[in-house]
Every structure is written in C-alpha cells, then in structure tokens.
Amino acid sequence: MLALAAALAAAAPAAIANDKLPGLVETITAKLAARTGFAAQMVGGDTIVALNGDEAFPMASAYKIAIAGKVLAMVDKGEVRLEQMVDIPLESYVPSPVIADNLIHPGVALSVANLLEIMIVHSDNTATDSLMALAGGPAAVTAWLREIGIEGMSVDRSTAQLSEQIQAIMEAAGSPGDSSNPAIPEFDADPRDHTTPNDMLRLLILLDVGNVLKPQSRDFLLGVMGRTVTGPGRIKGLLPVGTPVAHKTGTVGGIANDVGFVTLPDGRRFAVAIFTKSSTTPPADRDRAVAETARVLYDFFALQ
C-alpha cells in the first residue's frame, strides 16, 4: 500500500487516470479476489477511471440502491409518502437481520422511511421485498432505470427469489447452509440482477447530482447510506479514520461488492462502484480487495 501511494504521488494524475491506475488496482487485487471491477468519478468532474468497467457483475444486495431510488422517485411524485405505513405479514418474511430475526409476532407495519433505513443500513431482505412490492416489482424498478438512462443494469428478482435460487444451487452441490463464503459459479453466470461498474457509477451520479431525485429525497438517501453498518472492511477498510462514506454493500457466494460516495479532507467527494465475483478466497481477502481499491482511488482523487 505504501509503495502504491508513492507511485501515485510520483506520477502525473492524468497519466495515472489514462494508463496506470486500473493496472495498479488489478495488480494488488489479483490474489485477493478472482475478478474485480470498479468505476469511479469525482462528483462534478468529467474523468472516469475504471477497471473492467463494462463487464457484467452480479449486484447482490447492491441492487437495493436502485430500489431505493425508484421508491424515492415515487415519493417525489406524490405516489408514496415516507410516513406511509406498510403492512408486513409473517408470510412475506425473508431471512433478514432486523425484521425476520426480531419482529417475530404478527402485526408488523413500518413506515416507508423506516423500511428504506433498514434496507440500506442493515441490508434487511424483508424490508427490501416490501419496498420492491411497493415499487411495482422488479420489472418496474428496471423500467425506471431505463427511464433515467441506465441501460446496463437490471433488477429481475426479489430477495426471496434470489435466496431460493442460491439455496437450490447449494443443495444440488451437496453444500447447503452458509452462502457467504463458497463461490457459486451458477449464480455468477446467471445474467439476472447484474450491472456493470460503469452503470452503477452512472446511477450514483444521477441520484446525487442528476436531478433524478428532488433535493430532500437525495439528502434522505445519502443520509441513510452514511449510516450503513455492513461491510466495514470494504470501502471504509483502509481509509483514514473518520472519512465520511455513504455506501451500500452486496455479498453472496464469491461476491463482495461496495458502492457509494467518499468524502475527501477538503470536502470534495467521489463516487465509486467496486465489484468482485467468482472468488474462492476467504471473505476477508475479498473485503481487502475492495478496501485496497478504495484506498488507491482515495489517494488518486486527493491528488487532483
């Protein structure tokens, strides 16, 4: 890491952006994760730096950013209210760390605002599917992405359907149980619920400064993303202590993703989408690949 920082400091920023930065990232992540892709851009800037930026990667729970965007766009149109209560019957529960694990009795209803909070902050799957249904289902989320100009991203299934597919694959392989560690090639190869790093970056920029959301909805989303507790070893893992990060992770099989915004010491921010797939390395190594990528990008943009 120190050698990389020195290399960045010694080179002209433009040369790094055009020629060297993707190669540096690929070198340091090669042994940590089987396949890595990223795209990053300074908010308000024109230069995009990317590695495998047009390659398709499974989003896993990173697709919850698109769901949140669609719901908040509905709020802006007056079709949904943040204070609107949503009933959550027990039969709609999906394995999840907040609702399914803790609210075990019938009679659960949460506001749209609280569902968005726990979907992003805790990556709660029951909250996700409740919001997906409110948004009109996966096809409606994808249609909204097309409306705002995102062509290389699709939301195709609920988290319940994703979980069913993963469980079926693992049972067929004779290894049911924890899906957070072994690589699942069949899941990675399925074209559904994929994006490219470049398209996720475009979504982040549009949500932030693209007039896709009204200012109050934009601020709500960034505030929620800033409270995310999952993936502390990914984008945030090697950044200076206290660096503001607003992000959303995605994890399943050999996948460790993290997408969001990083604030530099001078107040400037950059958007970044980092993906891994098909990794057979330990989860800590995949997290390290994301962290190394984020740190190199932090140093790069800080020099601009």
Topology, pairings included?
Layout (H helix, E strand, L loop, with lengths): L1 H9 L2 H17 L5 E8 L5 E4 L5 E2 L5 H13 L8 E3 L11 H4 L6 E3 H10 L3 H10 L3 H10 L11 H14 L12 H5 L4 E2 L1 H13 L5 H11 L19 E8 L2 E9 L5 E9 L5 H20 L2
Antiparallel strand pairs: 1-2, 1-9, 3-6, 4-5, 7-8, 8-9
Structure description:
- The protein is of the alpha+beta class.
- It has a single domain, classed as DD-peptidase/beta-lactamase superfamily (Beta-lactamase).
- It has helices at residues 2-10, 13-29, 64-76, 99-102, 112-121, 125-134, 138-147, 159-172, 185-189, 197-209, 215-225, 283-302, and strands spanning 35-42, 48-51, 57-58, 85-87, 109-111, 194-195, 245-252, 255-263, 269-277.
- The chain has a five-stranded antiparallel sheet with strand order 2-1-9-8-7, with helices on both faces.
- A hairpin with a 2-residue loop joins strand 7 and strand 8.
- It is globular, with a radius of gyration of 19 Å.
- Residues 1-15 have low confidence and may be disordered.
Features:
alpha+beta; 9 strands; five-stranded antiparallel β-sheet; 16% strand; two-stranded antiparallel sheet; 45% helix
Quick take:
By secondary structure, the protein is α+β, with helices and mostly antiparallel strands. Helices cover about 45% and strands about 15% of the residues.
CATH topology: Beta-lactamase
| Biggest sheet layout | 5 strands, antiparallel
- CATH architecture classification name: 3-Layer(aba) Sandwich
Q: What order do the helices and strands follow? A: HHEEEHEHEHHHHHEHHEEEH
Number of helices: 12
What oligomeric state is this? single chain
- Which outline best applies? globular
Structural class: alpha+beta
The overall pLDDT, averaged over residues, is 91
Q: Give the N-to-C terminal Cα separation.
A: 19 Å
- Which strand-content bin applies to the residues? 15-25%
As laid out across the biggest beta sheet, the strand order is: 2-1-9-8-7
